[in-house]
Amino acid sequence: MDISVADVEHVARLARLELSEAEKSLFAGQMGAILGYVEKLKGLNTEGILPTSHAVPMENAFREDVACPSIGVEKALANAPDRADSFYRVPKVIE
Amino acid sequence: MDIVDQSIHELHRSLKAGEVSSVEATRAMLARIEAVEPQIGSFITVTAGQALADAEAADRRIAAGRMDVLTGIPLALKDIFLTEGIRTTCGSRILSNFVPPYSATSWEKLKQRGVVLLGKLNQDEFAMGSSNESSAFGTVRNPWDTTRIPGGSSGGSAAAVAARQATATLGTDTGGSIRQPASHCGCVGLKPTYGRVSRYGVIAYASSLDQVGPLTRDVTDSAILLGAVAGYDPKDSTSVNTPVPDYTAVLTGTVKGLRIGLPREYFIAGLDPDVQKAMDAAIETYRQLGAEFVDISLPHTDYAVATYYLIATAEASSNLARYDGVRFGHRAEEASGLLDMYTKSRSQGFGAEVKRRIMLGTYALSSGYYDAYYVKAQKVRTLIMQDFMRAFEGVDVILTPVAPTPAFRIGEKADDPLQMYLSDIFTIPVNLAGTCALSVPAGFSSDGLPIGLQLIGKPFCEETILRAAHAFEQVTEWHTRKAVI
Description:
heterodimer, B: alpha/beta, 15 helices, globular
C-alpha cells in the first residue's frame, strides 16, 4: 500500500509527533508495508460478526460511590516538570 | 546447590531450614548481578539498598515464625510495574526520571508476602518489541548466546532468570511478551487469562490485551507466583472476581486422558527444523504419559498478526497520549507554546518503534479509516476467539510451538518491523482470544539455544496447563540446564 510523506505528516500531526525528513520517508515505506500486510483482513467476510472490544464477557463494573483517600497534591505534583503552588505549570496557551 | 541456582520452592526450603538467611541469599544475588550484568544488561535499576533492607525484614519475619513460601525470596520486576519511590521507566527515555507515587497491585501483593526486590528489569520501550532492542536503556543479551536477542518485550525478565540474577521475575504479555522471551531464554513463562491478574499500576500498552505473569525456573514456581498475584482488584474493573485456586495443589504429575489439540495451522512448512523436532519429541513424551492427541483447526490463525497490529497500535496510540510533558516524564526545554511543548516532548522522549506504533494506531483510528481498519480488526478478533472456543469443545489444552525459530541474532530484524512482528505469530492469537498459555522448556537447537513449548488453556483454566507442563517437566531435564556465563 502506498503511504506518502504527506500522509505521514498528517498522521504525525494528529499524534502530536514531529518527525525528521529521514524519519518521514522511513515511516512512509514501513507503514506502507505494514498496512499492505493488514490488507489481508479485507478479504475475510465479517458480515454479521460483532466486533470484540473486550476479552471477557462483562457488564459494566459498578461500585458504591464512596469517598476514598487519594494520593494528595504533593505526591501528585512530585514528578511535575514545572509547577506553581498546587498547579502544573505549562507554557503560555493564549497569546 | 548454589543459592543463585535455586528455585523459589528450593530456596524456601533452605530459608525454612535455617541453612541460609534471606540476607545471604540476597547478597549472593546482588553479587551475581554485578558479575554478569556487563554481559547481559537485564537490569535498568538495581535496588541493592532496598533489597538488603527487605531481606533483613524478611529474616526477622522468618525468625518470628511468620514466613510463607515467598518470604525472603529475591525477585525482580519488569520496569513496567509501578514501584512507589523507585524509578520506573518502562524502557523509555520519556520516563527516565519518573518516580511513581504509588505501586502496582501485583507488586503490593508480593511485598506483603515479604519478598525482596532486587531491581527493575530491562524491556522493550513501552513493551513494544519482540527482541528487547527497542529499550532506551540498551539491548539485553541472551544468556545462552550473547550475540542473540533474549526475546521481548520482557527480555530482561527472562534473561535475569536464565542468568541467575533473580530467583524469579514478573513480566507482562500483550502479544507474547512473557512466553516468547521465556522460550528463547529457557525458562517457564505464563500469560494468565485476561482479567486473572490486576493491571492496576502496570503501565498500559494495549489495555484489552495486556496481562501480568511470572517468569520462573520451573512450573512449581510459576504456580506459586501466579497464586500470589492473581485475584480480583477493585482498582482494576477488568479484573475478574473468581476464586483463586491453590495452583500448586494441581501439580500431580499426571496427564492420563488429557486431550491435547494440535492445530494444523501452527505446524507449518516454514517451521524451524529444530523447533519441529522439539515439538515432535514433546508430543511423543505426552503420548507416553497417557495423553490423547486430537487434530484441530484454528482457521483464522493467519489473520492474527494483522488483527493484533491494528488493535494493539490503536489502543497504544490512545494510551500513550498521556505522555505530553505536563504532569510527569520528559518535557522539552525549548517550546514556543503548549502544543509545541507536547509535540517536542513526545518526539524527543519516544523511540522509533513507539513512534511507529503510535503512527499506525493513529492512522487506523483516523477519520475515514476507523471502520476499514479498527472495527474490521475487532470483528476478526471475534472470529479468532470463536476458533478457540470451538476447539476447546473437544480438547483440554492446545499444544504449539512458542516461536517459529529459536532466538535470532541482535540486529537481524531491527530494520524490518514487519518481519519482527511476524515472529509473534504463535503467541498473538492467545492474547486476542484472552485466554491463558505458558511456555515450558522443551529442548535445544543444534547450536544450543533453548526452545519452548506452548500450552494453551481454556479461559481461567491455568490449573490445566500448569498440571500438563509440570508433568512434562517431571520426565524431561530441559529446565535443569543452565546457561554458561
